[in-house]
Write a structure and sequence with these properties.
With 327 residues, this protein is an alpha/beta fold. It has 2 domains: 167 residues, 3-Layer(aba) Sandwich (Rossmann fold), CATH 3.40.50; 149 residues, 3-Layer(aba) Sandwich (Rossmann fold). It has 13 helices and 13 strands.
Length: 327
Amino acid sequence: MRRRDFISLLGIVAAWLLPARAQQADRKPVVGFLNAAIADHYTKFTSEFRRGLREMGFVEGQNVSVEYRWAEGHYERLPDLVADLISRRVAVIAATSTPAALVAKKATTTIPIVFTTGSDPVEVGLVTNIARPGGNVTGATQITMELGPKRVELLYQLIPKATVLALAVNPNNPVVAKVQVRDAQEAARALGLQLEILQASTEEEFDKALTNLPQQVGGLVIAAGDSFFLSETAKLAALTVRHKVPAIFHGREFATAGGLLSYGASVADSYHLAGIYTGRILTGEKPGDLPVQRSSKLEIFINLRTAKTLGVTIPQGLVISADEVFE
């Protein structure tokens, strides 16, 4: 090949490669967002996740794309959903529920994963060390699960004549349910109470469980840390009112919908922290070097209307300390 022809060929190759490299440089990173619940019920939380991303310089639709995958309460769909995200070569997977995070961790050891969970991330197997997770997984945890025993105590304070309390758990989330039952039973035993376990993974099952609730049960603790309960908070609260069951859960929405008492950490805050971590990983930080963050902001909401209807007396000290009271 003559020198002039060779130089011409190099020019053609360069002209073909440069646009491709420019396009690759301009390509926005893609974040995979995976959750076990229903999208419409998580608007506030996804907004907080995006706020965290923005604080790290990433604006959805401008310099980052987010692929949302929702299992809509069907946890068995999670493996296929995460496989789809992996096939799309996302830069980070934001697995914003415990079941989603466990499935994502099992599916990949290379793509960074940022979780939110109400569980102890070490106990459920997401990480081996809070301060230095190592591997490809880190995230944010609320102290939701740890507050399960405290919810048992609070409900008993409001219903001191009770000898039996009930705990609602989701059997489709066995890793979390096992811990919740264990901790609640320990708290109940310390108070000299019997604990009934109610299992529900749908609104209909929850309604049926309340219908069949033994008469001696004084109140209901709805186990936190589960996507089903979190996404159906308002409906579950309405059912407890209809069945006239004093109940405690977490989150403002439970009390506004008629639930007696809400006590727990801010789930929205953990989504915000997860958004920040996702942004930091997009800038080049390694998930294994980022300590698991803990959202420690606690909130108490009381519905005095429901308390009056149920004949429950709320101590004045608890009313004063509440973040918000509904009368």
